[in-house]
TrEMBL record:
<dbReference type="GO" id="GO:0005886">
    <property type="term" value="C:plasma membrane"/>
</dbReference>
<feature type="transmembrane region" description="Helical">
    <location>
        <begin position="142"/>
        <end position="169"/>
    </location>
</feature>
<protein>
    <submittedName>
        <fullName>ABC-2 family transporter protein</fullName>
    </submittedName>
</protein>
<feature type="transmembrane region" description="Helical">
    <location>
        <begin position="181"/>
        <end position="202"/>
    </location>
</feature>
<keyword id="KW-1133">Transmembrane helix</keyword>
<feature type="transmembrane region" description="Helical">
    <location>
        <begin position="56"/>
        <end position="74"/>
    </location>
</feature>
<dbReference type="GO" id="GO:0140359">
    <property type="term" value="F:ABC-type transporter activity"/>
</dbReference>
<keyword id="KW-0812">Transmembrane</keyword>
<dbReference type="Pfam" id="PF12679">
    <property type="entry name" value="ABC2_membrane_2"/>
</dbReference>
<feature type="transmembrane region" description="Helical">
    <location>
        <begin position="12"/>
        <end position="36"/>
    </location>
</feature>
<feature type="transmembrane region" description="Helical">
    <location>
        <begin position="111"/>
        <end position="136"/>
    </location>
</feature>
<feature type="transmembrane region" description="Helical">
    <location>
        <begin position="276"/>
        <end position="295"/>
    </location>
</feature>
<keyword id="KW-0472">Membrane</keyword>
Length: 305
């Protein structure tokens, strides 16, 4: 099992994916530094300045680092755990040695999860390193960012567990890796790209709330999971403009006109969206992923190879 874990782990770290992840992380770290430098030139109180920085960092972590990069890395690895081995016939060679199917499955899944976590930590490390090099960040703000990073890494581990469960399951039912990868990549684009746009349109038309579409809104679901971890950072005291951005990309807030004067002034106030319970959604996804891992184990134990 230990050998399979190590082989699965090391197989994930090829030159091209590692380079791409570092470049993307560095690019967004540079963008974050640019935003930081511009905001530092504005006349803002420390509280407002730190909140703006943390809000921007939170969106980058949710949408880009964990939402797109780590999702694709974990998807690519998990969907190839068994489908690729079966297709190439190498799994027969593995099982011909002194190893049980249980150890084979457990070793490969553990290696995939561990490798994805290393990618997660590395991505945030490169991001912060580039940010520090080009921003001249103050000590107090840097401490806030490091604290938030630790929280985002824990959130990322939860996401990796969920993605890994689905990817592993797909790897046991497809004969080749390609269709499983395409499904996972399409799902990432759907959750973090298409759904937010469609939701805005459906909300304006009045259909989103009318038909309770938040029940099927995967972007909102992951936003709720993310929000559970945001609370441990502290009160971000989101501004109205930032609430609007969070509403578009996470649906964590809903706009409300508190009185007629506000409505006539065409100004919106935002309140937390409590359509679904965040903890319930989080545990549901974790339990669902655990079930998929269990089904994958059972499938591979009975699979005719």
């Amino acid at each position: 099992m230990k050998v399979l874990l190590c082989k699965t782990f090391t197989k994930m770290f090829k030159v091209i994916p590692v380079t791409v992840v570092w470049l993307i992380s560095g690019a967004f770290g540079l963008l974050f530094a640019y935003i930081y430098n511009n905001l530092s030139e504005s006349i803002l109180t420390y509280a407002r300045f730190s909140n703006n920085i943390m809000n921007i960092y939170s969106l980058m972590a949710f949408m880009i680092i964990v939402g797109i990069m780590i999702w694709i890395i974990c998807s690519n690895s998990s969907t190839g755990l068994f489908a690729q081995e079966i297709h190439e016939g190498t799994i027969r060679l593995l099982l011909s040695k002194e190893i049980t199917r249980m150890h084979l499955v457990a070793g490969k899944i553990s290696g995939m999860i561990l490798g994805s976590v290393v990618y997660l930590i590395t991505s945030f490390s490169v991001f912060i390193l580039v940010f520090c090099l080009f921003s001249g960040v103050e000590k107090d703000i840097l401490l806030l960012i490091i604290k938030a990073t630790l929280v985002f890494i824990v959130y990322g581990m939860v996401v990796i567990f969920i993605i890994g469960g689905l990817g592993t399951f797909l790897s046991t039912i497809f004969k080749k890796k390609v269709p499983a990868v395409l499904i996972m990549v399409a799902l990432a684009g759907l959750i973090f790209g298409i759904i937010p746009i469609v939701r805005v349109i459906l909300t304006q038309l009045g259909y989103y709330n009318q038909f309770n579409l938040y029940i099927f809104d995967l972007n909102y679901h992951f936003g709720l999971i993310f929000n559970n971890f945001l609370g441990s950072i502290g009160d971000l005291s989101l501004s109205q403009s930032t609430n609007a951005i969070f509403t578009i990309f996470t649906n964590l807030y809903i706009s409300e006109a508190v009185d007629i004067d506000v409505a006539l002034a065409n100004v919106c106030y935002y309140d937390i969206n409590t359509s679904l319970n965040g903890l319930l959604v989080t545990f549901s996804y974790i339990i669902g992923a655990a079930v998929l891992y269990g089904v994958s184990f059972k499938t591979m134990l009975k699979k005719d190879i």
